[in-house]
Amino acid sequence: MAAQMATTKVPEVRDITRIERIGAHSHIRGLGLDDALEPRQVSQGMVGQLASRRAAGLILEMIKDGHIAGRAVLIAGQPGTGKTAIAMGIAQSLGPDTPFTAMAGSEIFSLEMSKTEALSQAFRKAIGVRIKEETEIIEGEVVEIQIDRPATGTGAKVGKLTLKTTEMETIYDLGSKMIESLSKERVQAGDVITIDKATGKISKLGRSFTRARDYDAMGAQTQFVQCPEGELQKRKEVVHTVSLHEIDVINSRTQGFLALFSGDTGEIKAEVREQINAKVSEWREEGKAEIIPGVLFIDEVHMLDMECFSFLNRALESDLSPVLIMATNRGITNIRGTNYQSPHGIPIDLLDRLLIIATSPYTEKETRQILKIRCEEEDVELSEEAHTVLTRIGQETSLRYAIQLISTAGLVCRKRRGTEVQVEDIKRVYSLFLDEARSSQYMKEYQDSFLFNETTLDTSKPMTV
Amino acid sequence: MAVQSWSDLLKSSKKTALIHDGKRKIHYLFTDGKEMAEEYDLTTDELTVRKWRSKSTFKGHGPWEIEVGEPVSSTVASLESDVIKENCSNPIFLRKDTKTSFQWRVRNLPYPKQVYNLSVEPDQRCCVIRTTNKKYYKKFNIPDLDRSQLPLDSSALSFTHVNNTLIVSYKKPKEILTLEHELLCEVKKLKGTNEGDVDCKTQ
């Protein structure tokens, strides 16, 4: 019954190139700064906003340094001037190792959780803990896999796996889960694999050089590796990065770690947090763990109310606090939850703790550049005249509207089997879709024929929040 | 951490003793949170079990790690395990000391005596068992010598092969013998009760 991985119904793990959907900021790959933190005019998807990008670069250095906690930055500017883009640029340049948590100001309003709890969770999500642990792994070349199916056809399969290194050979008994994952990974005799003994996770390192002479069908990406040396079982140091929030949830006991996946974490008690802070600093002293302060980005920060702002004041003073980046497009406006007016809708005492980066509207040349980058991102070819027309639209209406027109014009062009978007295509979609200004104009003209026009809005009474 | 000698560490640890089943059981709790448990045969005063446990980085205790003695076989649990484990026909490596030497036994090794090749690697502070037929390889250190920071001596190492078992012996150096003797005297002074339930000070 030494069936060598006969055809099973287990789905195979295939290498596929990830197909990413295109979002509003997917063209941004960094802040576009050189080594001296001088901004390049066009780089990594960023265009213009030189002063703000340079400022963001300095903040980035501060974050990477990791020593300073509890600094807050506000990115303020008109709509469509690249505030979120700068925040995304910071996130991209930080890389996957530094936690970056992005949220919108309105996300914290939930009936299940208090506002400050939601903010604390967001704060703790933005702080990573790197923990070193030793695990036992098995690393060797597969000599033979033998899987026995029970004679009755049902029941658990049993199997044996023979692994070897240059020095030794061992036979392992396989459980049903292990058999499944071995067939999923399509492990064959001659492969060099590692198995994490505790979790049973298999990773294929490649094929052994001794099998290099078998010229049978092999993919282009087959790698040849040496047969491992020494003992089969080794102790290896592995590094996990988890966020403080994840440790909180696991230890809050009421839900258990599954809450991490459902997101249904509920409120976490302050005592649990305190205990974990104490534990983490203990680990840090013992050299078992390292704290990586990350970034919490709150978009549309004017949506937070007075309670949240005073909570932020306090939270920023803790030494376990990440760098906070906020963005807003409001001028002098009401602070939510009060009748007071304040710049950006943020109380003065919090504003006093912030470094403010301002963004300014794009020039015509910059708008042109951005549209070009977006065309590349969305895979739309634009003729020179169409590009000029679109830039003009972007200047006169808004950059966002112009970007919206790219993909729609691209579709119109494809429908008429053209390869390059012409001025006519732009004109077509411009007439089909209204921009904000034309829509308001239309409203003013035809207001009488819309529903509910008979009730006049009482504008004298202030709106309650 | 400053190099602290093993005997000082032992003296500073909290000890609990208990006599049960014809064995003298001693539990040590060290200042760094590590725990060690030893079992001595009452009649021969030979060390039969020594195991270690330390707090893991995450919550809770890790499992006991056995340094000397036979591993507790958990056949029931292993049968149901979904993951991977060694086949029972594989060689089993365990340590079983005698009064005068450290001794390791590798059971289930059916190959003839001339296959085995033992060596000491002083720079890595370990001994290596090799087989010329490339079936078995084991690198092991001698924790007792590491703790007392004594050098490894290749002339102290010897081996025999009987009943499918490879027996490796390493003669205990003088320092170890005196240390063990002192420890045994110390341990015998500890009050142990014959009853199972003892107030364990170290817990």
TrEMBL record, chain A:
<dbReference type="InterPro" id="IPR027238">
    <property type="entry name" value="RuvB-like"/>
</dbReference>
<keyword id="KW-0378">Hydrolase</keyword>
<dbReference type="GO" id="GO:0060420">
    <property type="term" value="P:regulation of heart growth"/>
</dbReference>
<dbReference type="InterPro" id="IPR041048">
    <property type="entry name" value="RuvB-like_C"/>
</dbReference>
<dbReference type="Pfam" id="PF06068">
    <property type="entry name" value="TIP49"/>
</dbReference>
<dbReference type="GO" id="GO:0003678">
    <property type="term" value="F:DNA helicase activity"/>
</dbReference>
<dbReference type="GO" id="GO:0070286">
    <property type="term" value="P:axonemal dynein complex assembly"/>
</dbReference>
<keyword id="KW-0804">Transcription</keyword>
<comment type="function">
    <text>Proposed core component of the chromatin remodeling Ino80 complex which exhibits DNA- and nucleosome-activated ATPase activity and catalyzes ATP-dependent nucleosome sliding.</text>
</comment>
<dbReference type="GO" id="GO:0120293">
    <property type="term" value="C:dynein axonemal particle"/>
</dbReference>
<dbReference type="GO" id="GO:0048565">
    <property type="term" value="P:digestive tract development"/>
</dbReference>
<dbReference type="GO" id="GO:0006310">
    <property type="term" value="P:DNA recombination"/>
</dbReference>
<keyword id="KW-0067">ATP-binding</keyword>
<dbReference type="GO" id="GO:0005634">
    <property type="term" value="C:nucleus"/>
</dbReference>
<dbReference type="GO" id="GO:0005576">
    <property type="term" value="C:extracellular region"/>
</dbReference>
<dbReference type="GO" id="GO:0044458">
    <property type="term" value="P:motile cilium assembly"/>
</dbReference>
<feature type="domain" description="AAA+ ATPase">
    <location>
        <begin position="69"/>
        <end position="361"/>
    </location>
</feature>
<keyword id="KW-0539">Nucleus</keyword>
<dbReference type="GO" id="GO:0003351">
    <property type="term" value="P:epithelial cilium movement involved in extracellular fluid movement"/>
</dbReference>
<dbReference type="Pfam" id="PF17856">
    <property type="entry name" value="TIP49_C"/>
</dbReference>
<keyword id="KW-0547">Nucleotide-binding</keyword>
<keyword id="KW-0347">Helicase</keyword>
Automatic annotation (TrEMBL), chain B:
<protein>
    <recommendedName>
        <fullName>Protein DPCD</fullName>
    </recommendedName>
</protein>
<dbReference type="Pfam" id="PF14913">
    <property type="entry name" value="DPCD"/>
</dbReference>
<dbReference type="InterPro" id="IPR026224">
    <property type="entry name" value="DPCD"/>
</dbReference>
<comment type="similarity">
    <text>Belongs to the DPCD family.</text>
</comment>
